[in-house]
Amino acid sequence: MFQPSGRRGIIEAGKSLLEAAQELGVALESVCGGKHVCGKCRVRIEEGFFAREGLDSSRRHLSPFSAEEEKFIGLQEREAGYRLACSAQLSGDVLVYLPEESRGQKQVIRKEVRDLPFPLNPGVKACFAQLPPPTLEEPLGDFERLGRELKKQYGLEGLAIDFPALKALPQALRDGNWEVTALIWMGREVLAVLPGGIENYYGLAVDIGTTTVAAYLCNLKNGRVAAADSMMNPQVTYGEDVMSRISYAMQNPGEGLRRMQEAIIGGLNELIRSVARAAGATPRDIFEMAVVGNTAMHHLFLGIHPLPLGLSPFPPALHRSLDIKARDLGMEIHPGANVHILPVEAGFVGADNVGVLIAETPYENQEITLLIDVGTNGELVLGNKERLLSCSCATGPALEGAHLQFGMRAAPGAIERVRIDPQTLATRFKVIGLDKWNDECAPGEVQARGICGSGIIEALAEMYKAGVLEKSGRFNSQVSSSKIRNQGKGREFILTRKEETAIGREITISIADVRAVQMAKGALHAGARVMMNRLGVKRVEKVVLAGAFGSMIDRERALILGMFPDCGLENVYSVGNAAGDGARMALLSREKRAEADRIARQVEYVELTTDTDFTEEFVKAMPFPQ
Amino acid sequence: MFQPSGRRGIIEAGKSLLEAAQELGVALESVCGGKHVCGKCRVRIEEGFFAREGLDSSRRHLSPFSAEEEKFIGLQEREAGYRLACSAQLSGDVLVYLPEESRGQKQVIRKEVRDLPFPLNPGVKACFAQLPPPTLEEPLGDFERLGRELKKQYGLEGLAIDFPALKALPQALRDGNWEVTALIWMGREVLAVLPGGIENYYGLAVDIGTTTVAAYLCNLKNGRVAAADSMMNPQVTYGEDVMSRISYAMQNPGEGLRRMQEAIIGGLNELIRSVARAAGATPRDIFEMAVVGNTAMHHLFLGIHPLPLGLSPFPPALHRSLDIKARDLGMEIHPGANVHILPVEAGFVGADNVGVLIAETPYENQEITLLIDVGTNGELVLGNKERLLSCSCATGPALEGAHLQFGMRAAPGAIERVRIDPQTLATRFKVIGLDKWNDECAPGEVQARGICGSGIIEALAEMYKAGVLEKSGRFNSQVSSSKIRNQGKGREFILTRKEETAIGREITISIADVRAVQMAKGALHAGARVMMNRLGVKRVEKVVLAGAFGSMIDRERALILGMFPDCGLENVYSVGNAAGDGARMALLSREKRAEADRIARQVEYVELTTDTDFTEEFVKAMPFPQ
Predict the structure, then answer these.
(1) Which of residues 571-610 of A touch B (CB under 8 A)?
(2) Within this chain, do residues B211 and B306 fall inside the same structural domain, yes or no?
(3) Which tens digit of pLDDT belongs to each residue from B237-256?
(4) Containing domain of residue A249, as a range?
(5) N or C: which end of chain A has fewer CB within 10 A?
(6) Complex prediction ipTM
(7) Is B64 or B362 the better-scoring residue by pLDDT?
(8) Rounded-to-integer distance, Cα B345 and Cα B349, Å
(9) Which of A136, A163, A304 sits opposite B166 (nearest CB)?
């Protein structure tokens, strides 16, 4: 497993860590291409929960320290676990940490190197200009002198200049001996003027999720992702979900909002330093930011009180996209930079959904597409080039693995895969962080801690297929097995043996857990049905699962549970962090930005809580299909 | 004399202080109109250098304390010198201080109540709107909801919203129960949203002079000046004139500029508090500022390094007008307010000159007008509706009374009027602060301290008329008198007796002083001539003297000295602080603001230092005329 990306997989013994990284799509720097001569692919071997032997694992599970490695790694670093990825060959499990300096600048997150489906036309462009110095005959002001040249060379007219840029302008012109690079925003405003030419300049795309924040540093010159990183949203201290953060803001007037805004701004500033360092740049080299997030994250990021979002009729403070000076937000990038915040569709369909839309463009096709972004709230979009509807379903936290008896986040130790033999009810499972199924290793090695979202979906689908659960979701009273037992609140299914867990008892799935998942998937399914009725369609032709969770779900088992209307397994796609892709597109393309503004206004929001169809559809969607 | 306005004059004995104030154009509050019933016209009688008897003067030179006064003025205040201006009748000289609360809100500075020669159309307007609250059927965002109403009621489209206003918007809408007042800038941007309706809202016009800063608080609802005040530019600590401040910034890299900017921003913030208080408002009620100042003051106010202004070819950082957020400058007015800075013509012809231009509008007339704004630099504009030229003459500080042997600013004790008997050379003079000529009082009462700008002009004109000076400026060797004596560096004229001064010696005018004034007036005159040559005119038809000094100059004696080309005394006008008038006009009229932008680009700047005519004209202009 590679950290911090979290990529893991089974690699043939004898392959180098570099080869392993390449197979797993982990971006690891390697200038010489594995010839053992550049020393750029340094990694640190970490101890992990599956490598309880400690630092020894770096010796036992890897080839011995080689002569070429000695050239690049000093004694002290060697003791700290450093190796060259090109030289260290695998012979067992390892947890590898990529120091920032070794993280590749190309691909960290899926789809990033796919050709951009739009021409590169970023909001900020660098324009080099050579100016004739002022003379007594022609003592034109500095800014007008620059403007004249930018008009001549780039056809830019009527430019404004940001105030800090103006203050720095006279010095920059003289330091550069009248050769400067002007950073121009949307062809309208000079954000910065730097002496001489510049090598690279960057923009940052950010997806502020309720739980995870992802940042993509993009080189605005070529559109490529120069570095990417993610972190836990530091606001989780103040509440795990949207509603609890809104409550926190209400219960702590003034302070609550301020603290949560400071937390996200501070966290983003750290993330910015980290990606800048990884790309060999500084935060001041970042000249624009594009941000998506759900409406509550959007409000908290901007320091707008989220209270109205928590009370019917849930109006947001504004819908349209915004451009705010980075300095006004406390973002520590170039002080002249703007932060572009994508538009919001409605109180519960935010800028993150707009990001998904411009990344997946259902409005360009004739086929009826259902976009599902599952989280604490499921955000759905249904439609095609004729018409688009959106809605938000209160799925509750069950699909994220929260609030279940043994629910947990998708973290090491979480059961993420489940198989049940329909004959014997023998159960196999796999936990995150261990690349073997439980029956492939000693019970004590498994160390399961709970069930995450994708795990509960697989478990329920398998239980249903095996006949343990009825169509209605009840336990089938005809089936009796040592795996099923009664407990206080009803029946439960025993998923693990006690010895296989790290918590000292069996992990089970209760009838309450089944009901919670049924409620969640029922809401999702019913939301989709209500929109299908509105649109007058009987079938969806394509289903797109977006978001980190969306990409983890087993599509087949999601269909078995009836999480969304049936459309044929071959038409169900997982697209990963499409909201983040949308932010990146808005950063790199003015056309995409305009598209976002247009689409956000066109999507028709369907309020389910007042929809008369919804309850009926919800009742229909609760049972499992077939 | 009234403080702080500095107005003084001779008033008939028996008139009340209120009547005196009205005669002298001093804005003194008087709600009841002198009927002794409102108690609003409270003033404090101060001791002055001409009232050395101390507080007694308030009794001796005024009618006794009356019964009606007792109603409004307590014992403690009475001891501090408070009187009601309507009740206290004059019987001698007094120095009257107007507490802020008694200063009239109408007229402090000449011309202020003249009808505005333009329709009131301020940059910021308040728009009241009543919004339908959001419902589940129509949960439109707060800003879009406001925008829809502003479009419906005021035809405003495509409005942006300033970030702090957006943050405050949801609360303001709910506090006002969906009735709010939006402050809109230039029909484009929502600066602020306040719950309910508002009574008054203000703008501030500011003229930042090298020596004096004047501020006019204008009610944007009706265009009237609600309060006005002025202060010494706090930057004088860092240098008395423009060049010494530029030097200070150069000699103290980083720090120097910062300190000077902080000084002016801090000073303005004080001035703002003072005018707001006087108008019964708060600084947050000020929603826009319009600022003029010479190019160096402009740069220092903005925190732009003035170095290039001090080095040939003196290019400014920019020419065009600017709008900057008050918060980015540290101006403590409404945080959403913009500061509009008028455009600059050239390195030495600043936004103050543009202010004079839009106030005096020489470009509207056929007659050839010469505008003179005399300070350390004389800024000249010549032309008519066809064409306008401007130039800057390095007059040096002599015309401001500085750098002369006994030179001083126009402050109490400065000789400002001089008469010399051509026969006897007997000299009479008058000092500021004493409303009698020196021969009308005891020598010990005069207490002269030096000569100010208007004094030196009068003295030289009188010396020339009396034949003491030749046309060339030399002392006439034919004239011998006890008034003329040799000293080390040449001859000098004795203006005062020792007993008449506060400095223990005679005040004299040396040949060096004469030369300094000749240089200054020669430069001014030559600048005008060069522009006349360029324009191809032989005569100017109108001369306008602008600025505080311009209004103090005796026009006849300025003509005798040849400070500017002859044009007939009846065509010479003093217009006071025309630059401040221009700032006020830009604040209150978008048309005037556009006019300023247009005119600043149209005026053709004539660089005298490279002009081949200038030296020749300068030599010709040094002697006195006739």
Answers:
(1) 605, 607, 609-610
(2) yes
(3) 888 788 889 999 999 998 99
(4) 203-341
(5) C
(6) 0.77
(7) B362
(8) 5
(9) A304
